[in-house]
Specification:
351 residues, alpha/beta, Rossmann fold, seven-stranded parallel β-sheet, three-stranded mixed β-sheet, globular
Length: 351
């Protein structure tokens, strides 16, 4: 594989295949459906399965669900022509009738995540999330497929505990705040996962992802970690649009992919698991200072706009990763290495 896969990401994919070879053997000859295939995590997961096919001769097939052929062409290039990768173009609000053969595994990653859309089109955003989950679970019930649902740490809302939050420590989310359509839809979808497991026996596991980045992140990504990195590389002050007191929880992108494989094979049906590196819990302001110190000019500026930008609410959440670690998963990279590898991958793309 080449072209759209830069060298840093390519090396990480090879390392993942080697480290996860035993779990990847579970997918021999299987059909794997991945929704939201142009999103960050789903794309890297797709690339991993393709690389595993090359290295381990798994004879698997990936059915990638996407909406935009132009975006697929940009992100996958000639890889989209491979015989072991089949793209199906449709909206997640529609049943998966175009997928003609039964699937064995489903990784449901499709979601509406744009901050502006979440506050300007809350009805469309919420309904897309829930209808998408219903369609996935219906297909999983039909095909007796295993499902990993990519949930979010935002489902915790405002935590009720001062210690690290386990999967049982779900806090408060105000349903009348428009931006909260995102965490509310994630909560709704985790309920649907539990309901389909209990009523129909569907094997589904929820992966509550911390903020995830690493090689594979686009150099023009709009999320705060990417904005920090770009500003630092340009020698500019890092600008915060909040007071920076919210705590962030992070996980290296290859570690997140390894976690999804772990949950697909070893996760307990009907359960949720935090996907987080506990050592990365840090405030947004501290994160800015870390990036400015290691990669920039050391300057951090706070500039809070008057306009509602649709940012997630301020929260003091520290996630526990112990439940996932009990399955044998371990994070491998901390924040400095995460930024180093991300920035290195951007550089290798421009040479």
């Amino acid at each position: 594989m080449s072209g759209v896969i830069e060298p840093v990401l390519s090396a990480e994919l090879d390392a993942l295949v080697q480290a996860q070879a035993e779990r990847l053997a579970t997918f021999f000859g299987k059909r794997i459906m991945i929704t939201g295939a142009t999103g960050l995590v789903a794309r890297i997961l797709t690339l991993l399965f393709l690389r595993a096919n090359e290295r381990l001769n798994l004879e698997l097939t990936v059915i990638a669900i996407a909406r935009n052929p132009q975006k697929v062409a940009r992100l996958y290039g000639d890889l989209a022509k491979r015989s072991d990768l089949q793209f199906v173009y449709q909206d997640i609000k529609q049943p998966y009738d175009q997928v003609s053969q039964p699937v064995d595994f489903i990784f449901h990653a499709a979601a509406v995540t744009g901050s502006k859309q979440l506050i300007t089109q809350p009805v469309e955003a919420f309904s897309a999330q829930v209808l998408g989950m219903l369609n996935v679970m219906t297909r999983a019930q039909q095909d007796h497929a295993r499902v990993v649902y990519l949930s979010s740490m935002e489902i915790y809302g405002q935590p009720f505990v001062d210690r690290r939050a386990t999967e049982q420590d779900v806090g408060y989310v105000d349903p009348l705040v428009i931006r909260n359509g995102y965490p509310e839809s994630k909560r709704s979808n985790e309920f649907l996962a539990s309901a389909y497991h209990h009523e129909f026996g569907v094997h589904v596991v929820n992966a509550r992802l911390a903020q995830t980045f690493g090689p594979g992140v686009s150099a023009d990504d709009t999320r705060v970690f990417a904005q920090f990195a770009r500003s630092a590389l340009r020698g500019e002050p890092l600008v915060l649009h909040t007071d920076g007191s919210s705590l962030g929880n992070y996980c290296y992108l290859p570690d997140t992919i390894a976690a999804l494989l772990t949950l697909s094979v070893d996760g307990q049906a009907g359960e949720s698991y935090n996907v987080v590196n506990e050592a990365t819990t840090i405030s947004i302001k501290e994160l800015a200072e870390l990036v400015a110190t290691h990669f920039g000019n050391g300057q951090v500026v706070i500039d809070i706009p008057d306009e509602d930008m649709g940012y997630a609410p301020q929260v003091q959440l520290r996630l526990s990763g112990q439940k996932l670690e009990a399955l044998g998963w371990q994070p491998t990279a901390g924040l400095v290495e995460m930024f180093e590898q991300t920035i290195k991958s951007w550089g290798s793309m421009t040479r």
